[in-house]
Automatic annotation (TrEMBL):
GO terms for molecular function: hydrolase activity, acting on carbon-nitrogen (but not peptide) bonds, in linear amides. It comes from the Archaea. Transmembrane segments: none annotated. InterPro entries: GlcNAc_PI_deacetylase-related, LmbE-like_dom_sf. It holds the Pfam family PIG-L. This is Diacetylchitobiose deacetylase.
Length: 267
């Protein structure tokens, strides 16, 4: 049928609608479990926290996978890295509960030193095979001007782990341990500048802010003076695009478009 088409716009639309059957109207429709991957123990709340609350309210299980220990996140010289990691673990448990999340998995790589290696990627592959999530959320590694290496690498690690978890020859030792290759149906990006799906979080925005503030070691009164207006402005930014007050913006792709595609940005 495509040999009759001589126009890109028509081909693009029919590729999405008829060939790939890409429907972005409700990406979580058939999802029972979501794995939300975060570089640090506060990013799931700051990024898609409102979306997570909406999902757990619908009975969808959300599990966090925190890649680092958060041990560098302080300007207080009296707190050691080890102490801070313990404090942040507690804060994250409390914050997660507020959003309906009971389980947090930790890889405990050192904050600021998250490396992209096949070993770290395969740690995530193993968790995906064990947890079998229908959807995985990761920070968008292509966010312009993102300066934190842990964030960029968490994005790449997450995307690649999702792509590879279905390939039996990747980390084949998992199979000997009784795990099966797992195909993740839905991959979503948060912290994205190119959202193509919006969640109206107006009614849970205050709860989201409280869940973020539960990370007391990160948000002292002084820090919060700047962060609360910043976070509200981010909510309004996505809200303006969505036609509501506060929203979160996510980005979804057909899996085929996450490789060698010159027009992936158009989705
Ligand atoms: Zn972070």
């Amino acid at each position: 049928m495509f040999e009759e088409i001589d126009d890109f716009d028509e081909a693009f639309k029919r590729l999405l609608d008829e060939v790939l059957e890409f429907d972005i109207s409700n990406p979580f429709e058939d999802v029972e479990k979501v794995l939300c991957i975060e570089p640090h123990p506060d990013d799931c709340a700051i990024g898609p926290g409102g979306t997570i609350k909406k999902l757990t309210d619908r009975g969808i299980e959300v599990v966090y996978l925190c890649l680092t220990d958060g041990s560098m996140g302080t300007t207080d010289e009296s707190v050691s890295a080890h102490e801070l990691a313990l404090i942040r673990r507690k804060e994250e448990e409390e914050s997660a509960k507020m959003l309906g999340v009971d389980r947090i998995l930790w890889l405990d790589h050192r904050d600021t030193e998250l490396e992209y290696t096949p070993e770290v990627r395969n740690e995530i592959v193993k968790i995906i095979r064990a947890e079998k999530p229908g959807a995985v959320l990761v920070p968008d590694p292509w966010l312009p001007y993102e300066a934190h290496p842990d964030h960029r690498r968490a994005g790449y690690l997450g995307v690649d782990a999702v792509a590879f978890s279905q390939l039996p020859n990747v980390a084949r030792s998992d199979l000997y341990a009784g795990l099966k290759p797992h195909q993740v149906d839905v991959l979503g990006f948060y912290y994205t500048a190119k959202p193509n799906y919006f969640v109206d979080i107006t009614d849970v925005m205050e709860l989201k802010l409280r869940a973020i503030r539960a990370h007391k070691s990160q948000f002292t009164d002084e820090v919060w003076e700047k962060w609360e207006p910043f976070l509200r402005t981010v909510g309004l930014f996505y809200g303006k695009k969505a036609g509501v007050k506060y929203a979160e913006g996510l980005r979804f792709f057909p899996a085929l478009f996450l490789h060698i595609t010159p027009f992936a940005e158009l989705v």
